[in-house]
Amino acid sequence: MSLSISILGQSNSILKAGFFQKFLDADDTIEMKSAGRIGASPSLLGPYFAQGDFFKGSEFCIVDTCVIDFSLLSANAIDYYDVVKWVEWIGHSAKRANCEPVFVCIPVSDINASRTIISACISVCQKQDWYYLDVRDVIAAVVKSNNVDAKELYADGSHPAEFLSGVIATHLGNFLTKIRNAATAKCKRTFAFTAYERVPLRDQIPSTPLEYSSRLITFSGVRLERGETYPIHIGSDSSVRGLMVNSAACKSVLSIEGDRTFYKNLRLKPYHPTNFEARLIPVCRPIRDHQGMVRLSLTNQDVPLSDVTLHSSKEESGEGFVEVADLVVERGYDLVTYTTTRPADPASIRWMPD
After folding, report:
1. Which SUPFAM superfamilies match (predicted)?
2. Which of 114, 174, 185, 302 has its CA 20 to 30 A from that of 156?
3. Would you say 321 and 225 are in contact if contact means Cβ atoms under 8 Å apart?
């Protein structure tokens, strides 16, 4: 096919038996220009990873965020406003950089359970004329032709089995070919881009830096210890929206003191026995700065938690530390009008299996 792509995705974009790896394996001329892939993390991963020239040189950006967004929504760890905001930001950021976003909407194994989050993602695509592949259409075609139950096509509750992943990859390749050959029309779009920024903690906390590396991410952070208070400058008129942490080394409740005090449960459970597992933790109720600062500390007190953290424990381990790389902060909005393209045929934004 000979194309250049970016990827923003969760575990189905990471697994060796997942659709994205199957897609890459099918054509060795595909060049992956940039990637933001991390498990158990919501679509906030777009604003986290897709900074600067992330989309530069990419013809397409594959976006795979529905499964974990559904899991966090089900746990009340994020809300629909967050999802729509992050998905719109990803799409407009890609289009502004002359990169075509293609949303791959994967349901969980209970197909109807995640219909609302998929509908939310698709509604954004329809309003903005962005391409999407609704994997429920693919599953329906496979079920009909193979006379199987949809759940038989899944390895577990969240991940398509290898066969279905291969089918999704084939349809994705065909869809990109069709998009390439589709007629387009010029148009203008106006969008209020939220200004997201990473605030690296190692730049402000004088302690021994931590370094971890995997095939997906390099983690440069610090260990916060109980009994210490860490003042962090995030700038005026800013709010904290997330943290990049090592979930294998998060054993306490984090207190974030800004315009109010916020308690975040970071007694986390990694998916596998390991010393490093990167995870992007959203903060649903933004904590705004106090005179440009927030203060971080750990507490072992029985405090009222300010929101829900997926895969967290209520039990205190007694170890009392967390490892954090960055805070994700919002710094207001920039209203931008940019010139882009849209499909000449509005119906073509949805891929339909033959």
Report:
1. SGNH hydrolase (SSF52266)
2. 174
3. yes
Locate 52 and state its tokens.
């600067």
Cβ neighbours of residue 145 closer than 8 Å, sequence gap 6 or more: none
Cβ atoms 299, 285 nearer than 8 A:
no
Task: Map residue 322 onto helix, strand or coil.
Answer: strand
Residue 215 CA: distances (Å) to CA of 53, 128, 212, 219: 20, 33, 11, 11
Contacts of 180 (CB under 8 A, 6+ apart): 3, 59
Spell out the domain ranges in the chain.
Answer: 4-182, 194-333
d(CA 348, CA 178) in angstroms, rounded, equals 9
Q: Which residue has the tokens 């940019």?
A: 338
CATH classification of 4-182, choosing from 3.30.70.580, 3.40.50.1110, 3.40.718.10, 3.20.20.80?
A: 3.40.50.1110
Q: Which CATH architecture group holds 194-333?
A: Sandwich (2.60)
Per-residue confidence of the chain (354 residues) as pLDDT tens digits?
Answer: 689 999 999 999 999 999 999 999 999 999 999 999 999 999 999 999 999 999 999 999 999 999 999 999 999 999 999 999 999 999 999 999 999 999 999 999 999 999 999 999 999 999 999 999 999 999 999 999 999 999 999 999 999 999 999 999 999 999 999 999 999 999 999 999 999 999 999 999 998 899 999 999 999 999 999 999 999 999 999 999 999 999 999 999 999 999 999 999 999 988 888 999 999 999 988 799 999 999 999 997 789 999 999 989 887 766 789 999 999 999 999 999 999 999 999 999 999 998
Question: From CA 143, how far away is CA 150, in angstroms rounded?
Answer: 6
Judge if pTM exceeds 0.70: yes
Report which of 19, 70, 20 is spatially closest to residue 43, judged by C-alpha positions: 70
* Fold match, 4-182 / 194-333: no
CB 66 within 8 A of CB 114: yes
| Strand-strand pairing, 210-213 and 218-225 | antiparallel
